[in-house]
Amino acid sequence: MRRALGFSLIELVMVMVLVGIVSTIAIGRFSDGKESDAALYANRIASLMRYGQKLAIAQQRPVFVSFSTDLVTNEARVSLCYTVNCSSQVPAPGGMNSGTSRTTSKCVSSTWYCEAQPPGITVSYNATSPIFWFSPSGMPFDYRDAVTATASTYSQINFTSSYGSVSYTVLVEPGTGYVH
């Protein structure tokens, strides 16, 4: 007698249960990408600031972190520069920033290490000034501090990227410049 080929009822039920579990998780994670956009943008800004600090130490020169907001569209961007007025821009590692359409339009150059706020994401920061800089020792300074200063007037910056009730905050600590 020949045995019938196919799946048993138990195997079919198990596959259906597993597919249901996986699809429930996947739909929940991918239904609204704005929360992940907010997290991704906060991570990009933290990476940008860490890179600025490491570059200042490696090149033994000040590196400025500039927050700017377009007054018409209320869209923010964060960039790295070698000068307070950004006349000398820090090239992006690998030769290109994230390259999103918003970053390309707000940062003018894809080779400048600059990142623009994604659409639908709210950005805020508590900085008393929109610019600070890392010294050659990696310590953060307020932009009004002289480049030759040894004592910093910088106070902690909290940069927040949020969507709805979900927020991601990047902190730059005074004294050490620790970015987290």
Task: Report on the architecture of this protein.
The chain is elongated. The protein has 3 helices and 8 strands, in the order H-H-E-E-H-E-E-E-E-E-E. It has 180 residues and is an alpha+beta fold. The protein has a 5-stranded antiparallel sheet with strand order 3-2-1-5-6. Helices cover 31% and strands 23% of the residues. The longest helix has 26 residues, at 34-59. The chain has one domain (34-172): 3-Layer(bab) Sandwich (minor pseudopilin epsh fold). The mean pLDDT is 88.
Topology overview:
Layout: H1 9-30, H2 34-59, E1 63-69, E2 76-81, H3 101-107, E3 114-116, E4 122-125, E5 131-134, E6 140-142, E7 157-163, E8 166-172
Antiparallel strand pairs: 1-2, 1-5, 2-3, 4-7, 5-6, 7-8
